Amino acid sequence: DDLNDTSSKEANSRRESVTFKDIEKRDENTWYPEKNPDKLTKIIQKLFVFAFTWAFGGALNREDEPRENIPFCPSLESDSLAKVTYDFDKLVHELFGNSSQVGINLPTGECSIFGYFVDIEQCEFIPWSDLVPNDQTLIQRGTSLLTNLQRSGKNFLKITECGECINYTATRDTTCLSFLMSLLLKNSCPVLLTGESGVGKTAAINQMLEKIEGPGAFDIKHGSILGDTLLYSEIKKSSSLKQNITILIPETHKTATGSSDNPTKKPEVRTDKKLLKNNDHKGVVVSTINFSTNITAAKTKEMILKKLIRRTKDTLGAPKNNRILIFIDDMNMPVSDTYGAQPPLELIRQLLDLGGVYDTKKNTWKNIQDLSIVAACVPVVNDISPRLLKHFSMLVLPHPSQDILYTIFQVHLGMYFSINNFTPEVQKSKDQIISCSLAIYHQVRQNMLPTPTKCHYMFNLRDMFKLLLGLLQADRTVINSKEMAALLFVHEATRVFHDRLMDFTDKSLFYRLLSKELENYFQ
Ligand SMILES: Nc1ncnc2c1ncn2[C@@H]1O[C@H](COP(=O)(O)OP(=O)(O)O)[C@@H](O)[C@H]1O
Ligand SMILES: [Mg+2]
C-alpha cells in the first residue's frame, strides 16, 4: 500500500499544499523509502523478513523468551518449545542472512528474530522490548496511580477486594501481537489468536480493543497501537526531549504545567494520510461474542447484527464513518450437531465466504459491509472446520515468561506493601514470596498433570493470579514479620493449589514441594 502511494505522492502533496509550511512539515514526515529511494530494496528486504517471520513463525507454538535473566526462574515449558523458536531463528538466518544469497543484515542481538520489528523510518531492526515499559516505569506508574486514588478518597483495600486490581501488564509478545492484529484488522483480514488456556488471550485482545475502540482508531499517531510501533524513532526522539526538559524544569513547575506541556503529545497531529487513504479516520465499534457450548446459530446472528444498521435495502453496515469489529471469544466452544457441523461456526464461515447472512424471516440475502473479525480459541484446531480456519491469519500467544510474571508480582505486591505501610521486614520478604510463588507454580505445573480421573488438574496463569489476589488481601496488623509473610504465602498457595488435589499422595507431594521451596527461599 505504502509503495503504491509513492507515485501518487506528488498528487497528494499538491492537493494538500495549502501553505508552504505544510509542505515542509510533510517532508520531514515522509517514511524512509521516500527519503532514500536508493535504499528501497533494503527496506523491502527487511520488511519481507519481518513478514515471513510472522506469516510462518507466528503460527508456531513457541516459548516467550525471557527479557533478562532472573537466576532462580527455571524455564516454564519443556525445552522443545524453546527449540522451536531457536530453530525458526536459524532457518531465517540461513534463508536471508549474510551468508545466504540474499545477504540481509539481520539483527545479531540476544533475541531471536521474533524479538525484532522493522522501524520504517530508519530502516533498522529494533527489539520489541524497547516498546515494553520496564519494571521501574511500571512501579512508578502504579504508585502514582494509587496515590491519586488515595487522594480521591478511595481505599486501596476496597479495590483489591473486587478482584479487579491486577492491572494488565503488556509483555513483549502481547505488544507485538496486538500490533500485528491491529494491522491485519485495519486491512479487514480476520485474525485468530490461539494459545493454551489461561495464557491471557482474552485479556490481550480486550486490552487491544480498548485501545482501538473509538474514532480514528487505526490512525498512525502517537499513542495508538500502530503509531507506537511505526513511529518508533520519532516517539523516541520526542521522549528523550521530554526527559531533558523535565530535568530542566524544577519540581513545582512540573505539576503546574502538567499534561498541557507534554512534548510527546504535540506531534499527535501527524496522522499518515497516505496509509489511511481508504478508511480515513474511521472509528471502530466493537462487539464481543462469547461462544459457549450451547450457543446457537440464531443467537450468533443476532449478536452479529446487533450493532449493524441498515445501509440500503439489502445491505447492512456499521454506523456512518465506522467499522464493526467483532471479537469472538472461545471460538472452539460450540459442540457439533449430529451431522458433525457446528452451526454457529458455519454462520461465521458464510459471513466470511459470501460477505453476508440470510434474513430468515423474509428469506432474502443481506450483505454486510465494513466488518472485521478477531477470534480467540485454544489450539484444538481439529475441532474447527478447516473451511472456516482458512479465512483466518493465525497467531499463537506463548505463555508469558517467568520474568514477566515476576515483574507483575513485584509491581503489585510492592505497591500494596508500600502504600499500606507494611513493616520493612515484610516489605523485604516480598522478593522471597514472589520467588516462592513462581517456583511452586512451576513445580505444580510439572508434577500435577491432568489424567482422565483428574481432568481438573489444569494449572495455568489464572491460578497464579488468584494467588496474587490472595496475597493482596494481607492485613497490615496481622502480617507484621517475615514469618507471618511466609505463613500467608503458605496459606494462599495451599488454597489455590492444594485444595484442588484429590488424593493423599498428591497432597503430600504438594506439601513436600512447598516445604522444599520455603526452605530454599526463606531458610
Ligand atoms: N499480561 C497480563 N497482565 C495481567 N494479567 C494477565 C496478563 N495476562 C493474563 N492475565 C490474567 O490471566 C488470567 C487468564 O487470562 P485469560 O485472558 O482469561 O486467558 P485465556 O483467554 O487465554 O484463557 C486473567 O485473569 C488475566 O487477567
Ligand atoms: Mg479466554
From TrEMBL:
InterPro entries: DHC (IPR026983), DNAH3_AAA_lid_1 (IPR041589), Dynein_AAA5_ext (IPR041466), P-loop_NTPase (IPR027417). Residues 434-522 form the Dynein heavy chain 3 AAA+ lid domain. One of its GO terms (molecular function) is dynein intermediate chain binding. Coiled coil: none annotated. One of its GO terms (biological process) is microtubule-based movement. SUPFAM superfamilies: P-loop containing nucleoside triphosphate hydrolases. This is DNAH14 isoform 7.
